[in-house]
From TrEMBL:
Belongs to the ATP-dependent AMP-binding enzyme family. Residues 37-329 form the AMP-dependent synthetase/ligase domain. The keyword Membrane does not apply. PROSITE patterns: AMP_BINDING. GO terms for biological process: secondary metabolic process. GO terms for molecular function: CoA-ligase activity. It comes from Penicillium concentricum. This is AMP-dependent synthetase/ligase domain-containing protein. It holds the Pfam family AMP-binding. Keywords: Ligase. The keyword Transcription regulation does not apply.
């Protein structure tokens, strides 16, 4: 069988070799986003909000807390096992801000078994686990089963409360000036595990910077800060990276609820919807979905099994002819090779 190789229609673009992600965020603002622009918002009533400038400020403060109070250092791994919220991206950026490695996976949720948590911990071997109160007991049990791994365990609320009571100077961005950012890890991502146990993928600062630069390289005429999205699971690419650099708006759901998701997408006038095939099929077969105005949606990104043609046609009818992109290997593909 002949190999089918896709070659991009776009030329290679320049990816800086001597910057960390946090240095990139401090130095560049390609969409000219004002610091007070809202980029992250919890869906729940009275939920928290984060602006473009605030994300940088709070990440730098949290990074100072991690290094000064908890004694973490560049190269240390921090795992997040917590419900989805706007604080999730802040913690992720804070870890990378001081040169740490953030271990995260959308599969690490309230339904994750202790056995699966043991697998994640065995691979990532974190020095700190940031979790939610209700999930802490399960994480503590998983930690007890992993030999040689004894991380500090801290609840999100505890972390932010204690941090607010300390008078700390913001941490400077992790400095990779004159160094090769391809050999400095920034994140450990896990695959979905559809072919066995989830596989770990190590992303460098170079990989991540390449990913956040791609929209500007492939869609230079588009104002990416106008993109709007609702995410219902911890999403490193959609909720952590893109809003921080491009200034797009993301509504964060604590957990998935179909009706609440559709309502939030319509109310927020989202431009992109990311989903799994089961959600796509549910939308296509929903007899009441037309009561919601989803005409603002320009793209649907569906990861997993291929959608049937009639499902695609129905979705395009609901979304007024939007483009539907089906993908797989999302954890692995964004790794940019030199």
């Amino acid at each position: 069988m002949d190999h089918q190789i896709y070659e991009s229609i776009y030329p290679d673009f320049h990816v800086p070799l001597h910057l960390s992600l946090s240095q990139l965020l401090q130095k560049y603002n390609p969409e000219d986003v004002p610091d007070n622009k809202l980029i992250l918002e919890d869906l729940s009533p009275g939920g928290r909000q984060v602006t473009y400038g605030q994300l940088r400020t709070e990440a730098a403060m949290a990074a100072a807390y991690f290094t000064t109070v908890l004694g973490l250092k560049a190269g240390d791994t921090v795992a997040i096992y917590a419900s989805n919220s706007v604080r999730y991206p802040i913690v992720a950026h804070a870890v990378m801000w001081f040169g740490g490695v953030i271990a995260e996976d959308s599969g690490m949720n309230a339904l994750t078994s202790v056995q699966d948590l043991v697998h994640y911990l065995t691979i990532s071997r974190p020095m700190l686990v940031v979790t939610d109160g209700p999930l802490r007991v399960k994480m503590e049990e998983a930690v007890s089963r992993v030999e040689g791994v004894n991380p500090m365990i801290m609840a999100l609320d505890e972390l932010f409360t204690d941090m607010s009571q300390k008078c700390l100077s913001p941490c400077l961005p992790f400095d990779l000036s004159g160094k090769d950012n391809r050999i400095h890890p920034a994140s450990i991502m896990f695959s979905s595990g559809t072919s066995g146990k989830p596989k770990a993928v190590l992303w460098s600062h170079y990989n991540i910077i390449a990913h956040v630069l791609q929209p500007r390289a492939t869609l230079p005429e588009q104002n990416n800060s106008l993109e709007r999205e609702v995410v219902y699971a911890p999403c490193f690419l959609g909720a952590v990276l893109k809003p921080a650099f491009l200034g797009c708006y993301v509504v964060v759901m604590k957990r998935f609820d179909y009706e609440a998701y559709i309502e939030a997408c319509a109310k927020s006038r989202v431009t992109i919807m990311k989903m799994i095939p089961a959600t796509a099929v549910a939308i296509a077969k929903d007899q009441t979905v037309d009561k919601h105005d989803l005409g603002s949606v320009r793209h649907i990104l569906c990861t997993g099994a291929t959608l049937q043609e009639q499902i695609v046609r129905r979705l395009q009818d609901i979304m007024k002819g939007c483009a539907i992109i089906q993908s797989y290997g999302y954890v692995f593909v964004p790794i940019y090779l030199d």
